[in-house]
Amino acid sequence: MWSWLAIGLSGLYSVLGAKQANLPQSLLFKVLTLLLLLILVLTEGPSASQIYWIVGGLLVSMFADTLHSFKSRKSFYFVSYLLAQLLYSQAFWVQLNGEMIWWLLALLLAASVVAFFLLLPQLDSLVFPVVVMGGVLVFLAWLAGEVWLQAATRGAALGFLGTLVMIGSALTYAIHGYRKPMKRAYLWVSGSYFFAHALIVASVIY
């Protein structure tokens, strides 16, 4: 309980730093939040292969967030975010042991196509990065959903929910940045980003 409280407070201070345009505070607590999640999964997670993929995803996310905070080398932090999501995807992939359920993938793809065409008029040269990021996020959510449909455990449900929250965070960021500015969007984007990571970590602990 105390570990989750510390993680929540660290995430809150990062969001407050973003609200006050305090870059050092926001970045410090952003990295600290992910570091606390990393320590938690290493100390309380089972000795299984998916743990190491999640640890890798957290480490790469810390690197990507650092680059993003300084708004430098956009291609580097974009690729880093993709790599983090692929590492999370592998964490769910290694848990699969049955037949794939394709209707879930079809549902996720249909929803992503609708979201893409809603954003299309504002994307311009960003079409390719958005398609790539969206494809990786859909792949991640599909694998997490497959684990949940096969196992039907609380941990699997938390993991699937975490991937959906991550998609929602990315979608809000895209809408706010490229289509229609949203009031206090940073609260949802930053808060849901941390919440998504926390749910994915919780999926292998509980």
Automatic annotation (TrEMBL):
Where is this chain's protein located in or outside the cell?
Membrane
Q: Which Pfam families match?
A: YhhN
> What's the protein's topology in the membrane?
Multi-pass membrane protein
Q: Which InterPro entries match?
A: TMEM86B-like
Please give the superkingdom of this protein's source: Bacteria
UniProt keywords (A-Z) are: Membrane, Transmembrane, Transmembrane helix
Residue ranges of the TM segments? 27-55, 76-94, 100-119, 126-144, 156-174, 186-205
Q: Tell me its family.
A: Belongs to the TMEM86 family.
Q: What is this protein called?
A: Lysoplasmalogenase
In its UniProt entry, the species of origin is given as Vibrio alfacsensis
